[in-house]
Amino acid sequence: MPETIKTRLLILGGGPGGYVAAIRAGQLGVDTVLVEGDRLGGTCLIRGCIPSKALIHVASKFEAMAEAAREPKDGLSLGAGPVLDMAQTVAWKETVVDKLNGGVTALLKRAKTRVVSGWGRFSDAKTCHVETADGPITIKAESVVLATGSVATALPHIPFGGDVISSTEALALEALPKRLVVIGAGYIGLELGSAFRKFGCEVTVVEAQDRILPLYDEALTKPVRTWLEKAGVTLHLSAKATGWADGELTVEQDGKTLRLPADKLLVTVGRRPNTQGWGLEEMGVDMAGAFVKVGDRMQTSMSGVYAIGDLVGEPMLEHKAAAQAHVAVEVIAGQNRTFDPATIAAVCFTEPEIVSAGLLPKEAEAAGHDPVSAIFPFQANGRALSMGAGDSGGFVRVVARKADHRVVGMQAVGAHVSELSAEFAMSIEMGVRLEDLAGIIHVHPTLSEAVHEAALRALGHAIHI
Amino acid sequence: MGRFVFKLPDLGEGTAEAEIVAWHVKVGDIIKEDDLLVDMLTDKATVELTSPVHGKVLEANGAVGDMSPVGGPIVVIEVEGDGNSVAETAPPAAKPAAEPVKTAAPEPEPASVAEAPEAAPARVPVAKSGGTGALAIPSRAEGEKPLASPAVRRRAEDLGIKLGHVPATGPAGVITHEDLDAFIARAQSGGGGSTGGAGLAKRTAVEEVKVIGMRRAIARQMQESKRRIPHFAYVEEVDMTELEELRVHLNATKRADQPKLTMLPFLMRALVRVLPQYPQINARFDDDAGVVHRHAGVHIGIATQTTSGLMVPVVKHAETLDVWAAATEVARVAEIARSGKGSKDDLSGSTITITSLGPLGGVVTTPVINHPEVAIIGPNKIVDRPVVRHGQIAVRKMMNLSSSFDHRVVDGFDAAEFIQRVKAMLEHPATLFMD
After folding, report:
1. Least CA distance to A374: which residue of chain B?
2. Which helix (H) or strand (E) holds B31?
3. What CA dihedral angle connects A155, A157, A162 and A168, to 10 degrees?
4. Which pLDDT tens digit goes with each residue over A399-423?
5. What Cα–Cα distance (Å) separates residue A300 from each residue in A283, A284, A317, B54?
6. Domain boundary residue among A216, A241, A269?
């Protein structure tokens, strides 16, 4: 006879959606069980955002040292190049992951969440069976939050396996591949591809579309392209990967067939919602394409069943999942909540970084805002220059409505600009106007001065340009 | 140049202090003799104070809502000649007491709030090149999401309010917390504004209303009355059928210049006739001194609802008025009270009060005596009721008469007898007019 747990709330998935939901439920006094088949933390903490940023961090250090060894730069030179022990790097990265995983475990304990480790499978909308190390457990819940996340999409004709890897394996490589081919020039492919290039790998990127990072406009992606070219990353645009055999990727481009030999083939052509293998089909919820369909209260078509995060649609971002977790749990606790953000800012840890909140100029145009936009280049920003980051072509851009100067979009590209995302999101959520940005004293010397100047420029009176 | 110190005059009735209700001048104003200076509120009346001199306002002491002592300097005016004050030659600006008044002067605030969004962009220095030109504030386009900070959005959700229904006053059409407050206030006062379909949402707003001005005066008067006076309530029913017939007849046949009669002048007439036999009831009790002042004249307070609250204007010497004159006088003093421009005389000196809610009169009330009076009479609603008359059920126009007496100086027996006499007069209206 399997153990049966009755609970007010069952959360499936312990990623940034699920664990945040569990902690919030604890705060609201909702009796909660969380089921996770892997380690707590989800894609983001275990095999996504955080480990990739750790890897990029080491790669950037390595590159800076290698550069100093090649030729003196800014008065700095090294007698010999750096020596990389990839296994050690991966081990360090794992300590970061362990720290975060342990943190989540502790937070859930404090929130009095009962964590059930094992693979869960629903037999109906409110009943979940979990195979745990201590035997099967059946959980019956009044409310359910589905937070199963997403998985890397495979190409049908080039399945994962062997040297064909996803981002997950790329973050756990014990040795560097000499030649890495990346399929897909989205942010995951370019972040990882750039990192491996910094480590000295030969990196080739194959992209089916005619441009990289299709979510951003040309102006924002140009500095990234410039870096890729300078760094020696080979880029094949409008190129279709057609097959993988004997360590060679065949690519169709302009009617020609290219053969790209590779030690590892990294496939980053997107992610799809994780809807398989846990009984979703038994729950009677409506779908919206590949995603679970939800309303603005994160409710599915089945009463008492809520879904959040990557499972319910784009953008597949950690911070979106966490925000939706708040909404879902507060609704379950009886509060009146909707998921209705003004913006979900996104960052891209390429070289250099890209950050965007709100609308791009052309999107603002299409939305009928009659926008005015202005950029301020980091070339004219003291802090950027002092970091040697003034010549990467980076800038801050502000997009506002001509009619009332309300800021509808903010973007930047350049070193460390991801940290500007806070001001961008705050500005748009608070409905600020150009005059507000212009009237706020921005600290010198920081990159944020460029935000101030871009707003001034949109008003027609920038100081430093 | 001299300084004329205008001190708060004695506003009568042992008033020791009065409340500033509204300023008509501010520091720096040039004023003429007889110009309005300030409105002061005593226990009963709003009194307009005018300037006795011509000159420039140097000080205006106190903010709206402040209490000013009688005899205290309230306005200082710079005048030609010596003025009435020689000692103080210090520049008035150095007096901190005068400072708050500048801001306290009642400005037309709503107007400045409404102007704010327009005014802000106008100050933007728009450069020749690359500027975006003058700004208009477009209202939200249809289908466009309402603009509000996350905190405002969350509050609206908690309150079950759809932000799309909330008018915005913030820059660029941002809905502010204040907009939400205003919307809630309108919805609560029934002035429109639906809750957007979430009618069962909790209402958690708490509005703070300062008890100042008239309301403070009313509160204090009621508190005094209830604390000091042991009320004795007495209710009797009165058959008004004959009086109503007479009243209807008089209204139908009256001259054009005569006022329309309500039941009130007849009740006043009845009091005037009966009170001489009950001098302890037509009285004012100075309970601090332990003296009852029994008045020969009948000065009837008429409890009147005004926009700022309950006021009691007084019909003086009701014994000199016939029903027509009484009706005219009631209308006059009620209008004075409602306009808020009653003189001290119109609003004080009553010896007994009538409180009638007219069609809202209800079945029974327990009226609160208007201290220092000792009695209050509250006629209730007149309704058709079946009553037993001469062994038959008959439909009669019945009215209850609710009254309260100060039991310290009016015995229950006397009060009951008094009301019975009034009842007898009302039921036999001819007796109202017979000596």
Report:
1. B130
2. strand B30-31
3. 0
4. 999 988 999 999 999 999 999 999 9
5. 10, 9, 20, 77
6. A269
Instruction: With respect to residue A321, please indicate whether it lies within any of the assigned structural domains.
Output: yes
Question: How many residues can be counted in chain A?
Answer: 465
Write out the DSSP string of A228-241: HHHHT-EEE-SEEE
List the catalytic residues of A.
Answer: 444
Kindly state the average pLDDT of the residues A328-341: 94
Residue of higher predicted confidence among A160 and B69: A160
Q: Using pLDDT thresholds of 50, 70 and 90, give the confidence band for residue B91.
A: very low
Which pLDDT does position B29 carry in this prediction? 85
Q: Tell me whether residues B121 and A335 touch, CB distance under 8 A.
A: no
Do A382 and A441 sit in the same domain of this protein? yes
Beta strands A135-146 and A305-307 are: parallel
Q: Please name the member of B132, B136, B149 whose beta carbon is closest to the beta carbon of A429.
A: B149
B/e letters for A284-319, b = 16+ CB within 10 Å, e = fewer, are ebeeeeebbebeebbbbebeebbbbbbbbbeebbbb
Cβ–Cβ < 8 Å for A329, A320: no
Whether A339 and A323 have beta carbons less than 8 Å apart is answered as yes
**Domain holding A209: CATH number?**
3.50.50.60
Closest partner CB to A429 (pick from B125, B131, B150): B150
**A336:B198 CB<8 A:** yes
The count of other CB atoms within 10 Å of the CB of residue B344 is: 16
- Cβ-based neighbours of B216, under 8 Å, separated by 6 or more: B19
Domain carrying residue A105: 3-47+90-150+272-332
Q: How confident is the model over B24-43, as a mean pLDDT?
A: 84
Q: Which of B230, B112, B218 is nearest to B169 (CA)?
A: B112
Bridge-partner residues for A433, per DSSP?
A: A406
CA B225 to chain centre: 17
Alpha-carbon distance of A204 to A231, in angstroms, equals: 11
Which of B132, B147, B158 to substitute to test the interface with A, most A CBs within 10 Å? B132
The residue with greater pLDDT, A63 or B185, is A63
Give the β-pairing of B300-302 and B352-354.
parallel
Task: Give me the residues paired with residue B314 across strands.
Answer: B301
Mean pLDDT of chain B: 81
Question: Which has the closest alpha carbon to A351: A445, A207, A182, A223?
Answer: A223
Share of chain A above pLDDT 70, in %: 100
How far apart, in Å, are the Cα atoms of B234 and each of A176, A428, B376, B377? 102, 68, 11, 10
Cis bond before residue A352 (omega within 30° of 0): yes
> How far is it, in rounded angstroms, from Cα B144 to Cα A192?
39
| Tokens 């103080």, residue located | B88
Residues B388 and B254 in one domain: yes
Q: What residues in A contact B150, CB-CB < 8 Å?
A: 429-430
Range(s) of the domain holding residue B293: 214-433
Cβ A5 vs Cβ A87: under 8 Å: no
| C-alpha torsion angle, residues A361, A367, A370, A371 (rounded to 10) | -30
Number of folded domains that form chain A: 3
Q: CA–CA separation, B24 vs B10, rounded Å?
A: 20
Residues B277 and B385 in one domain: yes
pLDDT of amino acid B44: 64
Count of CB atoms within 10 A of residue A135's CB?
11
H-state helical runs in B95-159? 99-104, 109-122, 150-159
Residue A291 has pLDDT above 90, yes or no: yes
Across A43-57, A344-358, A362-376, B170-184, least confident range: B170-184
Residue A165 phi/psi, 5° resolution? -125, 160
Candidates B371, B388, B415; CA nearest to B236 is B415
H helices present in A35-138, as ranges: 42-47, 49-70, 86-110
Return the active site residues of B. 407, 411
